[in-house]
Amino acid sequence: MAGNPFIARGFHSRRPAAPPGRLPPGQYETRDFPVLSAGPTPRTPLAAWDFTIRDSEGHSVRWSWDDLRALPRETPTADIHCVTKWSKFDTKWEGVSVDTLLAAARSAGVASNPFVLAVSDGGYTTNLPLADVTDGKAWIAFGYGGEPLAPEHGGPARLLVPHLYFWKSAKWIRGLRLLPDDQPGFWEQLGYHNYGDPWREQRYQGDP
Amino acid sequence: MRVEEMRLDGNAAAGALREIFAHDMTTALVTCAGCARASPMGVLMNYGGPMGVILRCPHCDTVMLRIVSTPGGRYMDASGSSVMLIPERPT
Amino acid sequence: MTAELPAATASRLDWHVASVTDVRRETARTCSIVLDVPQWPGHRAGQHVDVRLVADDGYQAQRSYSIASPPEDASLVLTVERIDDGEVSPYLCDVLQAHDGLELRGPIGGYFVWDIAEGGPLLLVAGGSGVVPLAAMLRHRAHAAASVRASVPAHLLYSARTWDDIIYRDDLEQLAKFSDVTVAFTITREAPSDWRGYRRRIDRAMLEEIGWPPSATPRAYVCGPTPLVESVATLLVEIGHDPARVRTERFGPTG
Fold first, then answer.
1. What is the C-alpha to C-alpha distance for residues C128 and C69, in angstroms, rounded to an integer?
2. What is the number of structural domains in chain B?
């Protein structure tokens, strides 16, 4: 844009009313839970649903819905931050730690690699460093607010990685690919930041 | 609200398309790379909301066109569209 | 001729500051903004504009709004549904006033448009604020000579939550009276006690009563919230209308 922008008289950005230090830069707090999706809601019946961790050599381990539900559960509470600028505090989840799943995968002979590509029903993908889904930082969540996770919020199960922008918390998750090389996901291919740290405001490629 | 109640259509992408194309593209006839059926851009299913334009085939849900505007430039992926016919005279 | 096209299209993409000449309330939840746009290139009924708001700290918000005025009018009118927790629509309805500037670009869109030269019969189906681009079509049609209008009969079926939520109610009644449009309302929540019209969601029977038979090959334009648009479009095709003559535009609640 050349020249000075036209300032709309009396128009202001949403002012953060949240406690200092709790909102990442550029975010505002919402009490709603906005729904954002790159596609229609998948309709995979639970009997046909599974979750797979696979390495680049093709070794894999698979859980059925009942297998997943039988694993030890955790109930993380976290603030979540969407790249479209809303943040929601103290969201309460129930799910299985990704550490638990990766440990089982390792003992089944799945090779550990430095990068992860999360793969969802409907073709959605997102990429993360392995280090960002380990050590208690990520879950496969199937409960929200004491209820089964609703389809519009990614049910039956979604990835939960609350320390990164929420597009990384892939809805309708079906598996993790452990890769030797980083592979940009659905939004990352289109100019969204490869890592997506809300505290460094890494929204788009080129952001610091 | 359910995702399906929130989707819009290609008409809502007209502005984003005009930032890239010299013609109005909502009347363009676009062939889906997934199912080979052609639809006017205006009838494609529009997902993505404030993150970007995600246009899917109304018949088979294939992602036909993706556009994201960033401070560094506009990203567009049309790999899900095999052919686009931009009519000489919009009807 | 083709040499002129790039310049003309490029100019439509630029942002312009329009002058607000009036902001008037239409219903409790909608307002109309009357604009004087310098060098407006003209538009077709059904098109929209993008509106951009920039705050003094550089924060920006952008939304699309349908044009309510016909191409024949000197002023450009946008009608905005006010979303309570939104950030653009409350500004437009509550803060913006005459003599302010408003940044916009357009007109935009070429699929959901109608010109009287395309003929009819015209079947317009609206839900809520989806009536805005359809009203532009009816106002455009009203500018035509009576003999031309007679060859393009028009029916509007308009679904609103309450009697008071009907946008342009008086204007639509005037259009019905003076330009031979058949206007039917259906009220889905609270209807006045003496209401004799429809009081249910649009269904197949209603479309068969208000629409034309498929043999009349009407041009149908359906605009409103996504569930209404998808349901009506499906019903029209089930009734036997040619899908290629059923045009749809989905409106989302963009605050």
1. 17
2. 1
